[in-house]
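Why does residue order matter? Because the sequence determines the fold. Keep that principle in mind as you read this record.
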Amino acid sequence: MTGRPDPPDRPALVGDARGPIVELEPPLSQAAWSPEFVVQSIEALFVYRTSDGIRSLRPVHADSLWLGLGPGRGPADVVLGAAARYGLTPIVIHSTSWRQAGDRVVLTYLAVVQPPTDASPHLDDCAVARIDLARGDATAAPSAIGIGQVVEHALRHLAWLVRDDPAVAAALPEWPPVLATYVPEPFRAM
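Structure:
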């Protein structure tokens, strides 16, 4: 490295003669981080539809994307910003659930996106599999909730929205057939 600052229109570079040069992107979230700062976390689940079913786009390093919610930001705006960062075009964004994970409250947003034409190298593209929901009891949450169960719950919520919410139904006219089996648990066997 030369010791000269990078031009203002270029990202900062990290590295030396022995290692690779890496371009650093700005953070996905602008929320400050500290081990003592308990933040509300936004979880973004990106899904899209193909002729073979529903697919999920998730970070290569984790089961789902968690974003900090800083002061003055709306959670949907945070999810929209993350989608843009990955080059995704959202069709519908909707909060579908919340849960406690350690000392954090996680607010989950399902983001239905257009099928990506150019896949981000930072996202894994996987088929969504059906899974039983996590169950607690009448006054307590489940002891463990897996990401597959969160996705299952989110898609059941979306199935309800395409039937009940005119704006969601209009935005997702091709989705009802693929969501037809996502009905509330008591009715699945009927």
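Residues 156 and 182 are 5 Å apart (CA to CA).
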